[in-house]
Specification:
690 residues, alpha/beta, Rossmann fold, Cobalt-precorrin-4 Transmethylase, domain 1, 6-stranded parallel sheet, CbiE
Amino acid sequence: MKRVLIYGGTTEGRRLAEKLAEAGIPSLVLVATEYGEQMMAPGEKSGRIQVLQGRLTAAEMTALYEREQPAVIVDATHPYAEAVKKNIRKSREGFRQIPYYRVCRNPEVPEEREDARYFDSTADCVRALRSAAGNILLTIGSKTLSEFCRYPDLRERLYVRVLPSVESLEICGEQGIRGDRIIAMQGPFSEEMNRQMLQETHSEILVMKESGRTGGEAARIQAAEKAGATCFIIRRPRAAEEGLSLERVFSEIRERFPWEDIARAAGGEGFSKTRLKVVLVGIGMNGERHLTPEARRALDRAQVLFGAPRMLESFAGNYKKYPFYTRDRILPVLSELQETSREETVCAGILFSGDTGFYSGCRNLVPALKKLDGAEVQVLPGISSVSALAAAVGICWQDGKILSTHGISEEDWIPEFLDAAAHREKTFLITSGAKDVQRMGQLLAERHRGNCICHIGCNLGTAQEQILRLPPEACKNFEEPGLCTVLVENPDPQPRRLTPGMGDDVFVREKVPMTKEEVRALSICKLHLTAPAVVYDIGSGSGSVSVELAGSDPSVKVYSIEAKEDAYNLTCRNIEKFGFSNVTAVRGAAPECLESLPDPTHVFIGGSGGHLEEILVHLMNRKRTIRVVLNTVTLETLAEASRLMEKYELEGEICQVQVSRSRKAGAYHLMQGQNPVNIISFDLLSGDKN
């Protein structure tokens, strides 16, 4: 199978070779420099790309055609590479029968900006620079550097950005450019990077060539505008821009290769299902502006793009766009592409705001993508709103608690938030907008957290970005539009208690019986509580066990079940006193009132109302393992519990605890014993007999 010969050294040349390789079409890519060869190296993994490095004369090009007999010749060199274009034209004089294409970076003449100066040639630009004042950031490479260094007064004002190749650095040295005025880096360069270079070099002028999107023209112009610098732009040679887009050239070449030939070249009689290369990309907070260079390169190779509509809007290019961001919408499209595409490989990009590993749909999508036959999945991170807000405020974030309200019910996020705000110096809250910020302010104010400071990052990374510093009370009236991320700083966080043992005197007390402090602590330890958990406190009485369980961890959801009105009211008062939102009082008798509650992981029974067996049978029917702790004071209940353990073959333990407390009697202290309490604990295993 004949190869496609590509004169490359540009992004378009590399992308064309990769697309051809994915379609099963081999190519020989010619690059002038060692650096150009290094940039092509990733594509060589396909086995269908060969790279030849070195500058060729017209005669050497002709000899190459005779030896290779290429199927197609493609000129994908830089728009300004006039010397090599001249050699290509001359070399083809005896080979007009070989199809030839010129890849045009941008077929349309770009619209010129009023705030920039344009020049038809390098010489015109040099003349204008000599009459202008200030340092100059030169971003046009090294090939025409000699024209700018011809005049010492101009050379002394230059900072030159070139490729990090030996050839480029040698040219800089030959032209007398000092090492501290050379920036040897490979792009792409973001707007922010360009702006910082202008500011660090104190440059008032940025010199660039008209290069379009691929050459990063917009990022440089916007950076110059923000840095207060003037752009000097050397126009692209118009005559050299006759040609076709990369996609059109690829399509034309693809049609010249019969499907059967490609299949044989691939090593089989026909193609198997199309392979998928899927890259999930965190795009930060503002689309292309915040992309990492690796993510930008990955998306440049993509043929299809998925994401929320607002994300897709900021990405120009020849993508087939799908406004989908959930697993159930994306997977069917990819499966269909595998079945219907005639290409060997389809590259797909999936966009996520912020970072892919941070409250992202990536978590559910990646495992599903990996199950697709022939899918290669890559995840590229981005900048999260939390790291952006922390940087804006000037603090570190690794020791903060990070929570989100986005798509999460209040029942789940409020307990976590209140716990973090009480015990942490820093709590980050990713919200869905003003309504969540108002609710956050209300919660902090109600819990007497008025000393907290709320840093609110509004529309981070956009032109509308604001960083506000408000007390909780002011947050209740917050109405700024857009997405918000909040940092709550607590200057006086409460130490977290790691063991049970809240004093009896901290609870509201009435005539309702209460599980005393020592027995309560031991009973909670016997529960073997884990997080997250769903706990029933059956016969809650004063609610002391429920409150202590709720305070152990915000992920523990407690249901306080109480049939007696006075005890139920007392439970509610104690829940309200401590302000835990992860405990719910339920009025009713067990087991009837348990039907509508979620399956428990742990159950504490402080009072069964004479229905112990019915309660245990109900719990067994939940078909899951449940840890049960039962407290009894009377011998009758102890005997009933022992009978039920034997009847249902429950293995556990019974321990009797008697607590004595000292009391003062005149000048002396006496120990006064309390009623002994039997603590019974066992596991109800899924499938126990009933």
